[in-house]
């Protein structure tokens, strides 16, 4: 009986050990504990102390200072008691423990009672516990991340997705598990993108890019996708991890910033900055092909007058319509950009033969010459086009555009509404122009300017009643340089202000010198550039100079062009009123050649109009020129404005003008512009 009892005890002990170590080895965990429950009860240890002892003694050096997180201890006790009461097959608890360094560690504890007495009370319990902090943090990140995550197996079948993935795509886990992620793909992405994606994943194990995807509702969103490969112990692909972010709003914001930086807001065309990029790319592409392309520089004629007379809103709508017309004249492979207010540039690519440019340019001119209907307004404009060809006229973007600009100005000077090709002669003229500008900067300080005077005749009695002061530049090498060659340079460089002031001072000085020889009411006409009116106080110096020399304002006539009036600026109107208040009279030069001359006569204080010589040159009885001259004279007189005819060269012209009631005349029939000394022969009391 004793042997039988001993054998049963041995078998029971062996069974207990098998239960104990089977659980331990099956758990495959790091830390193992063995709890003699009966012994603990005998020492009256509390459940909490037992927990601290058996659960975290191996994790910390000083177990007495260790603490289970207050939020977790109740559930740990509960799960332990359930198992001790044989209500669960295993004890399992995931909770947090406080490290001695003050940080919280996640722990997974598992245990099993391996021995009970005849009443079923637990006698012995074995178990394990593991530090699962990294795994738990990864789980938290997976669940709480705002970045969509999907894990797929080696065959790229989804095995798990996080809540953010569902929020971004709209797909719940049940609808995507087991599927290939390609159901998210958008048709916007090319097959080449996906081919390169897998090629890079297989080569480096990683890939990332921005691309379009499609959500559960079928809507496309722009996303950032990163894919990483995870390998197993045999260095074979185990699974893939994909990180997905919806960056649609960011993309829209970036595109908006990029569009504002590179595109014209009004016309949606590339702006000047973007155009240079397009032009550089076209040069590189065409150079590789050893081919040619054409470059147009397009300026809208009379567009400024539309803005000034109708409104900028009307002008903007006209620009939009003009853009549409120009786009209809070119192919999709060509490019057009707005590089200034009313300036456009156009690349005509893949140029097979240069004569094709003629047809495109003429089509653009014809289209823009057709009337524009904006609200109730029917508006007419035209276009001047300069053309350059790569590589004949330049091999870089800056040179090509500069040369096209020069060709455009040639077209504009030739009468507008036409096109002109760049030539080497233009390049030479440009170089000459730059050299001339350099000399012009020193001309005033070196006393190279002089005034000549052309008599203006009173047609009622044939007397010399006025003189127009005309500027000449006595260049030391070029000889006499006329204003047509250098005034535009002076305006562009800002030198016109100082030059204009010198002209005024010199003219009234000469007037004082002639005061004893001129009849009462003699006037001197002085031409003024529009740029001299930009400053509201620009003419105070002139008024002070008149006062200093004791000259009455009526002795001066300021000649302006209607371009000045077209600017429609309040400062211009104010300065013209200042002239009127000081008895300075105003003459409108080159009358009849502008855009809408008649409309300005009722808005501005004008004393004289000067009929342009283009109307006088072919003046004959019953001719169209005669009819126009008579109409202008009659209209001016009705408005209380006197008329001066320019360019009178024959007695017949003089008689016809006099018969039409013209007040004054000037021209070679009477005298060419002469020096001050020669002009004195036209003054009273001059020696014969």
Please report the number of helical segments: 25
Radius of gyration: 48 Å
Low-confidence stretches: 42-49, 56-66
Report the major sheet.
Answer: 8 strands, mixed, barrel
Q: Gap between N and C termini, in Å?
A: 174 Å
Number of strands: 26
Q: What portion of residues is helical?
A: 40-55%
Proportion of residues in extended strands? 15-25%
Overall outline = elongated
Strand order of the largest sheet: 18-19-21-22-23-24-25-26
Mean pLDDT: 85
Derived from helix and strand composition plus strand pairing, the structural class reads: alpha+beta
Account of the protein in words:
The protein is α+β, with helices and mostly antiparallel strands and about 700 residues long. Helix content is about 40%, strand content about 25%. It contains 25 helices and 26 strands. The strands form five sheets. It has an eight-stranded mixed barrel, surrounded by four helices. Strands 1-5-4-3-2 form a five-stranded antiparallel beta sheet, with helices on both faces. A hairpin with a 5-residue loop joins strand 9 and strand 10. Helix 11 runs antiparallel to helix 12 and helix 17 packs parallel to helix 18. The chain starts with a helix and ends in a 9-residue tail after the last helix. About 5% of the residues have low confidence.
């Amino acid at each position: 009986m004793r042997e039988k009892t001993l054998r049963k005890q041995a078998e029971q002990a062996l069974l207990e050990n098998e239960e104990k170590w089977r659980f331990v080895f099956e758990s495959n965990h790091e830390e193992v504990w063995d709890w003699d429950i009966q012994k603990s009860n005998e020492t009256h240890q509390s459940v909490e102390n037992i927990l601290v002892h058996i659960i975290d003694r191996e994790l910390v050096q000083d177990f007495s200072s260790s603490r289970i997180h207050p939020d977790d201890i109740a559930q740990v006790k509960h799960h332990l008691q359930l198992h001790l009461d044989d209500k669960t097959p295993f004890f399992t608890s995931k909770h947090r423990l406080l490290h001695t360094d003050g940080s919280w560690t996640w722990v997974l504890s598992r245990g099993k009672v391996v021995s009970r007495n005849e009443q079923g009370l637990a006698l012995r319990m074995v178990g394990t516990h593991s530090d699962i902090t990294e795994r738990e943090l990864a789980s938290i990140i997976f669940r709480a991340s705002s970045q969509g995550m999907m894990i797929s197996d080696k065959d790229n079948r989804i095995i798990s997705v996080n809540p953010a993935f569902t929020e971004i795509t709209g797909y719940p886990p049940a609808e995507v598990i087991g599927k290939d992620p390609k159901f998210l793909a958008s048709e916007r992405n090319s097959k080449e993108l996906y081919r390169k994606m897998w090629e890079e994943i297989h080569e480096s194990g990683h890939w990332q890019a921005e691309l379009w995807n499609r959500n559960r509702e079928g809507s496309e969103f722009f996303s950032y996708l990163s894919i990483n490969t995870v390998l197993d112990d045999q260095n074979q692909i185990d699974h893939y991890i994909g990180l997905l972010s919806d960056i649609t709003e960011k993309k829209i914001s970036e595109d908006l910033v990029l569009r504002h930086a590179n595109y014209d807001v009004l016309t949606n065309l590339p702006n000047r900055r973007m155009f240079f990029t397009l032009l550089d790319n076209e040069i590189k592409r065409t150079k590789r092909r050893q081919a040619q392309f054409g470059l147009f520089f397009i300026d809208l004629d009379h567009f400024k007058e539309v803005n000034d007379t109708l409104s900028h809103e009307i002008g903007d709508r006209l620009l939009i319509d003009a853009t549409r017309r120009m786009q209809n004249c070119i192919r999709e492979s060509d490019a057009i950009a707005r590089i200034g207010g009313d300036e456009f540039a156009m690349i005509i690519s893949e140029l097979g033969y240069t004569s094709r440019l003629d047809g495109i340019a003429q089509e653009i001119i014809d289209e823009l010459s057709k009337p524009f209907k904006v609200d109730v307004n029917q508006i007419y404009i035209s276009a001047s086009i300069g053309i350059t060809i790569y590589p004949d006229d330049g091999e870089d973007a800056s040179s090509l555009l500069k040369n096209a600009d020069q060709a455009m100005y040639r077209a504009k000077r030739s009468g507008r509404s036409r096109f002109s090709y760049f030539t080497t002669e233009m390049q030479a003229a440009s170089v000459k122009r730059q050299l001339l500008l350099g000399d012009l900067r020193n001309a005033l300080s070196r006393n190279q300017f002089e005034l000549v005077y052309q008599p203006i005749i009173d047609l009622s009695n044939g007397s010399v009643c006025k003189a127009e002061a005309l500027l000449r530049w006595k260049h030391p090498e070029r000889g006499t340089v006329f204003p047509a060659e250098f005034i535009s340079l002076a305006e562009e460089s800002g030198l016109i202000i100082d030059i204009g002031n010198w002209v005024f001072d010199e003219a009234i000085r000469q007037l004082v010198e002639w005061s004893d020889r001129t009849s009462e009411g003699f006037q001197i006409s002085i031409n003024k550039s529009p740029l001299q009116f930009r400053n509201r106080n620009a003419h105070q110096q002139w008024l002070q100079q008149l006062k200093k020399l004791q000259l009455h304002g009526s002795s001066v006539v300021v000649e302006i062009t209607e371009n000045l009036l077209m600017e429609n600026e309040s400062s211009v109107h104010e300065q013209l009123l200042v002239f009127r208040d000081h008895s300075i009279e105003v003459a409108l030069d080159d009358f009849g050649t502008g855009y809408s001359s008649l409309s300005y006569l009722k808005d501005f204080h004008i004393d004289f109009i000067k009929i342009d010589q283009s109307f006088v040159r072919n003046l004959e009885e019953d001719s169209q020129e005669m009819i126009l001259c008579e109409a202008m004279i009659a209209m001016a007189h009705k408005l209380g404005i006197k008329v001066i005819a320019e360019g009178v060269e024959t007695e017949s012209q003089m008689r016809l003008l006099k018969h039409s009631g013209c007040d004054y005349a000037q021209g070679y029939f009477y005298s060419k512009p002469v020096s001050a000394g020669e002009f004195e022969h036209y003054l009273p009391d001059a020696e014969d």
